[in-house]
Amino acid sequence: MKSKRPAIIAVGRTKFGEHYEREPERLIEEAWLNASSDAGIERKDLEAGYFSDYFLPITNKLGLEEGFLSELTELHVPMEVTRSFSSALINACNAIQAGRYNVVLVGGMEKMTDRWDKIRDDLMLLEDPWSYYAGCAPEANHELMLRAYIKKYGIKGEDLEKLDIALAQIAVKNHIQALKNEYAQYRRKITVEQVLKARRNAKKPLGLYDFAPISDGATALILTSEEFAKKFTDDPVYILGSSSATDYLTFPAREDRTGFLVSRIAMKNALDKAGVDLWDIQVLELYDQSTLMEMISLEDLGFCERGKAWEKVYVSCQNFRGYYEINGKRLFVNTNGGLKADGNPLGATGGAQIYEVYKQLKGEAGERQVKPDGELKYGCVLELEGFGTKGYVHILGRG
Amino acid sequence: MSSEPIERRVSYLGDRLRGRRCLLCGKEYFEIRDYCGRCGRKSFGKMVDIDLFFEKGELEVCTFINNPTNKFKKLGSYIYGIVSFHDGKIRVPGRLTDKLIKDEDEINLSSFEGREVVPRFRRRYSVDKSDIIPTISLTFTFADEYYPHQQYKVTKPKKEYDSPGIVGYGFYTSRFRIREGKMERSVPFIDEDAITAAVEAGKMALIHSGVDSTLVGKVYVGSESNPYAVKPIASKVAQVLKLGEENGDVQGVDAVDTEFACKAASSMFKDAAALVSYPKSNIQYAMVIGADNSQAAPRNSPGGELDLFVGYGGCAYIFGKQDVIAEIEGWYSCTSDTPDFWRRDGEPYPMHGGRYTGDPAYFKHIRKTAEKLMEKLKLEPEDINYFVPHQPNVRFPTRIAKELGFKEEQYLPAIQVARFGNTYSGSSPTGLASVLDIAKPDERILMVSYGSGAGSDAYSFITTSQISEKRKRQKLTVKYQAENPFIEYVDYNTYRRLKAGL
User: Least crowded by CB within 10 Å, which of A51, A177, A398, B176?
Assistant: First the structure.
């Protein structure tokens, strides 16, 4: 089984943010070029392509994207498009593990700012139609989950204030991390007071600074079989375990509305497949579409007891040293700034998460390089689709 | 452009909040499923229909939406959340309606959560003027405010009458008002229109009458503000209220819209009564609804005088021969081609003939019709307990009542225009409802409607002993809605905005 581990030999990405003047193909091209020149690989080496995006058919009138990518790469190999980078990656892993291909390109792209006035409506495609018909907006389910969380765990008074501050600290922390990320959309500090003020001004449980932005961007990586990886590098990063799960599209109909079932299932299965213990994970990329999602995911993945993550975050962020202190260990979370500050071009986002863990494991993260308790060996990426309708976990490791 | 098939399916489920329950495990679904996801194939044929239309739910959690998606922009900001029914067996998303949230308002989500809510049938969101109007009942109001939750209990009839009459009725208007001088007028919330008022009124009539909705064989809806030039309000009413026997996804009921300015509904009272009396019709009950979001041009523009008087609301009557609360003693109608008030096709607002709307129009027709019916039935004014005229304003009905020899105690109880405004097709029916709300058994009511264009219908009703018994079934009486502590007054600009709708 060990010989079948898929290996990442190179990663590439664009800056996330607004790329007003650039077509989507220029973005994916840049990400591919960054990755391929890193690995010294050429287009003709690619045996297949797995891509992801959500909205190109709507935002850029691109229906059959495989053909668009064939035209761009002048390749006629099999290509498939799914909606999230992690889903493309999991398909690529399956194909490599099945022995079908040795070298594939995995890419993700999104151009969200092209439809600035309609993108919030487009985002509702990720929710169930009845919620949309009832007046749901993209932020609403995050806020309802927070309300349900507060209610379920009876959080009030001083504790509620701490929970509110902990969520704000997540945004502040992610902005600080992004200062060291040259590709990040927002490279400026924000304060807890700013986050709280935005909530007060909007009279909402979560405010502008609690949510990831709308972004353009692309990411790419080259995935190979374990044997093939050796031709290019002595030190690939392996995907030790991957798993995904699916939940009801309709959030109100889910049994538990204070967390994401998909994260729990996917994490358990991915750890099992990888043969890695939860507490061996040192770097973690969480899907913080909102500050709440980062906090809840700490619980869903098993790092914090349910109903308690806010306490750990609150204490860790009182004097933040770059990591959360959980279970007496250092857990580095969203070192690239997370979706909040790095940006969230949906189809490309998962690629940036993998990019970050890859760079950390390789020791190539520059200023962002983490210093865990022992040797840095394992990282984990959680990506969600919709409001927890799909969840993907990848466990990455060296050697 | 809207998708017709999608709209049909969404409103079929969403207007009535239809679903299924698994008889094996009790799990409930807000969708028409043929089997239970938990029980699998053994549950085929064991799924029963449920619907939440007459139920009450609980707003479990909610949030404040101040930046809605594009089609919801006209709603401004609102509360959105999760509503549970049947002790959490089923949960649906929902928007709170009938709430005007101002910039300076504090939002305390905890003050909304955990409270009982009632589903309300409303417009879903804005669409282009040429599109199908989307509707839904995933809109809610608090049960402890203006609109209480009321059970719909089907009651077995006790008594058969010789002549047909009113079996039950309902009046509905919104909780918003504009107050100018002595006049208060109902203002629809922005997601309301003549269609939603017709459904609400019909719902109230079912609750009051206790009539099994599947026995209603015909429904007439009179309105002059149907948002469609072509497409009946009555079909929506029939589908949402499940009138007539269900046959798959169609209702075994005849439904039709009528139009004759303000007498579109009153004109059909006799047709409904005749239909239920005709033995071969096999129709036990017929429903007549008058509902309008009364239209008026803005002030200081042609036709803008009406803007001082128009209201919003609907009134519904169920006619039959069983458990009658008011028998029809007789009727008389007259018609002339008098163009005192009109609205051309495609025009948003009606025009009127100024001072000619009074004497050659309103007064003449009401006078002639009332006098003729009284003559036919050999009645003097003192034989009549209540006189209910059409009421476009306060002055007209008062003048004609006096002219016909009625005293204040006979006509004042029926004059409701100063509380709700002129509800056009709902106007004299609302006056009648306010009298039925207070009348004792064996009293005589003379109602005379007026519709521009022009004509009048006069009816004489005699109340029965059952009027008092049925009264306790209805909380949302005319008085209750007129004197409700949850009425909210709006300024002129808000009134015009709400009236213009989504």
Answer: A398
Domain positions in chain A? 2-117+214-232
A386: left (phi over 0), alpha (psi -120 to 50) or beta: left
* Full set of structural domains in chain B with CATH: 4-17+52-142 (no CATH), 160-500 (3.40.47.10)
Q: How far is CA B311 from CA A72, B97, B176, B193, B296, in A?
A: 63, 19, 10, 11, 10
- The residue annotated as part of the active site, out of B7, B28, B192, B224, is B224
Three-state secondary structure readout of B407-463: CHHHHHHHCCHHHHCECHHHHHHHHHHHHHCCCCCCCEEEEECCECCCEEEEEEEEE
- Exposed, middle or buried, A157 (CB in 10 Å: 0-12/13-18/19+)? exposed
* B278 CB-near residues (< 8 Å, 6+ apart): none
Q: Does residue B1 carry a pLDDT above 90?
A: no
Instruction: Strands of A253-389 (E only): list them.
Output: 281-285, 324-326, 329-333, 378-385
Verify whether the Cβ–Cβ distance B113 to A147 is below 8 Å: yes
Closest of A122, A145, A109 to residue A19, by C-alpha: A109
Tens of pLDDT, residue by residue over A242-299, are: 999 999 999 999 999 999 999 999 999 999 999 999 999 999 999 999 999 999 999 9
By DSSP bridging, strand B285-293 and strand B216-222 are parallel
3-state class (DSSP) for residue A157:
helix
For residues A334 and A344, give the distance between their C-alpha atoms in angstroms, rounded to a whole number: 13
Q: Are A147 and B62 in contact (CB < 8 Å)?
A: yes
B390 labelled catalytic: yes
Q: How far is A144 from chain B (nearest CA, A)?
A: 6
Question: In B36-130, which residue ranges form alpha helices assigned H by DSSP?
Answer: none
Q: What is the fold, at CATH topology level, of the domain defined by A2-117+214-232?
A: Peroxisomal Thiolase; Chain A, domain 1 (3.40.47)
**Rounded to an integer, what distance in angstroms lies between the CA atom of residue B67 and that of residue B223?**
35
Nearest-angstrom CA–CA distance, B41 and B469: 49
Amino acid identity, residue A347?
G
Judge whether A116 is closer than 8 Å to chain B, CB to CB.
Answer: no
Measured at the CA of B472, the angle between CA B469 and CA B476, to 5 degrees, comes to 135
pLDDT tens per residue, range B203-260: 999 999 999 999 999 999 999 999 999 999 999 999 999 999 999 999 999 999 999 9
Nearest-neighbour CA in chain A from B103: distance (Å):
10
